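Ticket #4471: structure export looks truncated?
Reporter: QA, pipeline team
Priority: medium

Steps to reproduce: submit the single chain below to the structure queue and open the exported record.
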Amino acid sequence: MNVFEAVTSFGHEQVIICHDAESAYRAVIAIHSTVLGPAVGGTRLKLYASDDEALTDALRLSRGMTYKTAAAGLPFGGGKAVIIADGRGQDRERLLRTHGRFVHRLGGRFITGEDVGTTPEDMAIIRQETAHVSGLVGHSGDPAPFTARGVFRAIQASARQRWGSDDLAAKTVALQGCGSVGRELARLLHGAGAHLVVTDVDAERVARVVEETGAAAVAPEAIYDVRADIFAPCALGGVVDDDTVPRLNVEVVAGAANNQLLADRHGHALEERGILYAPDFIANAGGVISSTVDILGWEEARASERIDGIYDTILAVFAIAARDRVPTFEAANRLAEDRLHAPAK
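Actual output as written to the record:
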């Protein structure tokens, strides 16, 4: 991959390739935009198939954070960090403290938090090296419940748009991913009377959700063929692709995963099939909204009110899509871009 071409195509301000031999630390910190404020985004710790895959992940996720914070009306830009696991059992504390030092050198341009492969306890380790971290135990903490709450509100708004009511009783939701966010979302959906069909590559996670909610379980690949009202992708991104779009037996796609569409054409494909898509960076903004407690000193009640406001933001996206006759993912981009460009007006 040509790094400069990749960075230019995604529109980034800065991409830092980080390395420390003593701790076996290799990472990418991508700052997409600081137009609205410091770039915020989680630190992901993952074993990647290649360095190119790690770079692409950082670029896509950080751009998504810019749109997410803009659409949520927050005074933040977008960033993301990925630490490349080597599969040989690195010293976790040493690795995270090294990461904290790299974050600190950015002088507050990037504020990080929990993401896939990291925890609030990990953020406390990073905090030993830099103040530019959120999601700490005793403060906003684990963002999963907040992310799940926002996705739940997005699903309710999608139900209202599709069926005229946000009542989820008797609706069937095919939920992919029973990790921290998926599990919390399953609880909320169960509490609202929805029927659940769930899957995950981790059988223990599935068993836990089945026990808590009475959900039915299917094999990971079978989730795309489940006949349901709503498909909720809550694992990794890129699951809506050439293979899965024709297989979906649902009327709504609304979930927590980032970058659910493998490419823009898959958003068009959902539109052509009459499947309503709740754009991911709108639906899953609850986690970054919760970080305002740490970063901006917001009261929890204020942050919770903004998370519940995801309901209205999703409806606004659907209204833009109808007005402009574009797919919902394009409408969400337009909403975010309008807010990004507002300071220059």
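Status: closed, not a bug. The export was complete when the record was re-opened. Leaving a note from the reviewer for reference: The chain has a mean pLDDT of 94.
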